[in-house]
Amino acid sequence: MHQEIVINLPIEPHEVPKLRESVGWDGRYSDYPLLFERCNFWAGLRDEHNELIAFGYISGMGLQHGYMEDIIIHPEYQRKGIGEALVKSLLQEADRAGLEIVTLTYDKKHQLFYTRSGFVPSAGGVWRKG
Predict the structure, then answer these.
(1) Longest CA pairwise span in the chain (Å)
(2) Rounded CA gap, 114 and 108, in Å?
(3) Residues 87-106: what's their mean pLDDT?
(4) What pLDDT is recorded for position 103?
């Protein structure tokens, strides 16, 4: 696959929920297209059949700090370097946009992936509505 990750790739509202479900996550259909209006930018990749196979975004105030979320690669395309390319593209766009800090949360099993992608593991916390 020689296609490039595209920043702010045009995406139909149903495509990200479908991709989320392909990896076993809740589709969160009500989040789209609202998410595209509220995040700083997103990135995506399509396969040769024009199907969305990769997606991720950075949100925040757009001043100094951003939050990376929903790094999703369709299961058929995982472990082929697409995730690393997606994260790299998002971080390059963050740099271009003037963000100095990008944070994210991840499952411990993904720590090596994010460390290789330039993130430094750190302590933090998560609040969830009861």
Answers:
(1) 45
(2) 10
(3) 94
(4) 93
pLDDT-based confidence at residue 104 (cuts at 50, 70, 90): very high
The answer to whether 22 and 53 are in contact (CB under 8 A) is no
Of all residues in the chain, the percent with pLDDT exceeding 70 is 98
**Interval 63-69 mean pLDDT:** 92
Domain boundaries, the chain: 6-116
Superfamily for domain range 6-116: Gcn5-related N-acetyltransferase (GNAT) (3.40.630.30)
Q: Tokens standing for 46?
A: 């399509």
pLDDT for residue 2: 53
Residue with tokens 């949360």, as numbered in its chain: 105
Q: Which phi and psi (to 5°) does residue 100 adopt?
A: -105, -20
State the average pLDDT for the chain.
93
Q: Residues, the chain, total? A: 130
What torsion do the CA atoms of 8, 19, 74, 67 make, to the nearest 10 degrees? 50
Structure tokens at 65: 């700090």
What are the tokens at 104? 């994210």
DSSP annotation of 5 reads P
Q: 55 is written with which tokens?
A: 């997606």
